[in-house]
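ok so for the tutorial part 2 we go from a plain amino acid sequence to predicted structure tokens. step 1 is just haveing the sequence, like this:
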Amino acid sequence: MKTESVIIQREMAAAGKSRLARYADLIVGRPGFWALLKYELITLFCAPVPGLLGLWLRARLYPALLGRCGRGVVFGAGVTLRHPHKIEIGDGAIIDDHCLLDAKGRDNAGIRIGAGVYLGRNTILSCKNGDIVLGDRVNIGFNAELFSGSRVELGADTLVAAYCYFIGGDHDPQDIEASVTEQGSRSEGIAVGPKCWFGAGVKVLDGVTIGGHAIVGAGAVVTRDIPDYAIAVGLPARVVRDRRTAAT
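step 2 — the prediction. this is what the tokens look like for a chain of 248 residues:
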């Protein structure tokens, strides 16, 4: 289990830091004026531009911000990158309009997106000093969120419907007198095998492992491990069948 005490509000309000330095820490993640200027110029002239011109500009200039960017990657309008030098994207990935890729952290690896991945509109990949890894051809519907305080990994060819939430971390409210926002956080991570399917609105809680080829029904809340080829439904989710059985 990974334990963190990164309190964004506290760090942003640290004495002696200028507003410019706080902004650079939160958004760019690299020291120096030139790193900030490069980020600002590229996002200013690329992020909001609609249509073919916007697609062309982002395809040409966004890779200059990223740790690695494969061939043929598509960035929709309004795509936001935070700590982009810790983001790697494989060939042929599609990042739809208004997605947020936030690789924030002091010593994490960041976000790794495989080849042929599709991220639906308004999807959020959010790191809090954790890592997010999407295998090849993962498909994530609109308005989904993956949050990682340690490591959240989805296996290749996994399908995630709209409004799903993978919650790879939690608060650690040990001090009953202090507010939750003043205390630390903890994370065990989430691991999902290949070729899984998550119905709309599924919530997967921290510390869960889901085997390959599993199906989780719409609206389920996953609080415990799910084995390979299982079908799980409900709140909390429970296994109702093995896909390898002959029953329909």
